[in-house]
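Researcher: Next sequence.
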Amino acid sequence: MTIQLNNQLVRRALELTLHFTPETSIPECYKAFVAGMKPHHRDSEFIVKAFVDKVSSWERTVHNLINSDFDVCRLEPVLFLSPLISEANCEDTEDYNYFMEYLEYRRYVEDCCDSEYENLMNLADEYCLEYDKLMKKDRKLKNPLAQELMETGEIELNGHQIIFWRGHTRDTVLVQQDWNRIESFAALNANTGNEMGRVVFSGIFQIRRMELATYASNMGFRVQAAVNGKTNLLVYGSENVGPEKVASFLKQRELRDDIQLMSENEYLEMVLDNCLV
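Model: Next structure:
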């Protein structure tokens, strides 16, 4: 079964499921949700996968969720509750109306408890909020320069052609998640002397970002997630370069001279010069 949920709704649906799951049946990796704490970033992929696995055997999940037996088909709105831009208003979408019918049935026919009803309503509200954001397309970045760069789409900077996100989100580049993941900055930098300074990677690269970062560590760079006053090098990929990182780079370049911009090919040439491959 294919799950068509964005990250926010996956989290909400998982919280909803856990709310009605007996404490003794909740795996250890879910405990952060129950305690109301945000899970560690490294756990997020396992949490999403666990939810997908849960849905694939939905009959068992139904029993844990509402403690009653009924036609599994009625839960399809929960599984596929993902905004599709086909109507002007959220309330006009087929998914929303189907889900609200299910909600009313749970409340007034099967007499669900107040807490379950409240959670289901919250899920419907989050669907509408997400739908409105997609319709308005007005998600603004906090950094005004980064917002301007994103709206521009791409810029040329000292001979470097930099292509930004252009409205992409983590979901739209989901296939790149593993490719772009750096497993642990702490482990990567544990044996780095920082002789070469600090480096940040942004965008989609020809080789895995973890491999690029390992080369950097071996050369004596300390690898960072964000550009700041200590960054010495920003390496950018062929597309989907983060506008906030470039905006921070431009700000730092106005303040000091010891920060550079480098393409992936230039970076790999530096790696070859250091005889690392």
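Model: DSSP finds 13 helices and six strands in the chain. Residues 144-273 form a domain with the Rossmann fold fold (CATH 3.40.50.10190).
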